[in-house]
Design brief:
five-stranded mixed sheet; mainly beta; rod-shaped; 22 strands; six-stranded mixed sheet; 2 helices
């Protein structure tokens, strides 16, 4: 009988190994976990601390936003808060509260990231005819890699135009993904606007200029001293390059 009373008097406690910081991506589903040992007949509630709004009590939801829901799998100690289609306003601290006497709380901070895309070689890339075009699109603040990355030449999607090039997508460490566009034997028709459009970020664009013929003064050199037809220029040199191209055409 004494053993029964001892078990009945155990107080609820939180599992200290439960994540206190959760990061999700805009539009994704976030799960905030709260593992409670010895819950007994007590109830778990989730409270949004920014406005002290009670979101859930047990498995009941107390908000008109159906994006919020308490998740509890039978025979487990985990009472998770599910947030669907995460929005920027969802970021902040959430309180998991147990209705013991006195009440106990566990706090979880949610960070909502907005993925960003940027083409390394932007805003302009100058390439000589016959060289290769190499574009690198870096997607940052992306906990999950994009489902797809579409590349466009002007208004035409070129993902499936593999006769002269290829597109790759790679997940790097942390919250970074990378997509590369490679086109060999650049032609004048390859000039124009190129856009990297990840599924989870705003697109990023670059203008590619194909220069006809050899223009030693207008080309960059790599570390071995050879011509590199896909080096990007600093914006302040753009006007100089154009003038050199016009001058070279006149003197041919």
């Amino acid at each position: 009988m004494d053993y029964w009373n001892l078990g009945a008097n155990l107080l609820p406690t939180f599992d200290s190994k439960t994540a206190k910081n959760v990061t999700t991506q805009l539009g994704q589903t976030a799960y905030l976990h709260c593992i409670v040992n010895n819950l007994g007949d007590k109830t778990v509630s989730w409270i949004r601390r920014i406005d002290f709004h009670v979101l859930t009590v047990g498995l009941d939801t107390y908000t008109s936003e159906d994006r919020f829901q308490a998740i509890h799998i039978e025979n487990t100690n985990d009472w998770a808060l599910q947030i669907k289609f995460s929005q920027l306003k969802d970021a902040g601290v959430y309180e998991c509260q147990v209705s013991s006497d006195p009440k106990i709380s566990y706090f979880v901070n949610l960070t909502v990231l907005v993925a960003k895309a940027a083409i390394n070689e932007a805003p302009d890339l100058y390439v000589k005819t016959g060289s290769s075009i190499n574009l690198t699109c870096i997607i940052t603040q992306s906990p999950e890699p994009p489902i797809f990355v579409f590349w466009y030449h002007d208004d035409r999607m070129i993902n499936y135009d593999s006769t002269r090039g290829e597109i790759t997508v790679q997940k790097l460490n942390g919250d970074v993904a990378i997509s590369r566009l490679y086109i060999k034997n650049a032609l004048p028709a390859d000039s124009g606007n190129y856009t990297c459009g990840p599924s989870n970020a705003q697109p990023s664009s670059i203008t590619v200029h194909i220069l006809n013929g050899e223009k030693p003064a207008a080309m960059q050199y790599d570390s071995k001293g050879s011509h590199s037809g896909s080096k990007s220029l600093n914006p302040e040199f753009t006007t100089l390059y154009i003038l050199l191209s016009i001058l070279w055409s006149v003197l041919r």
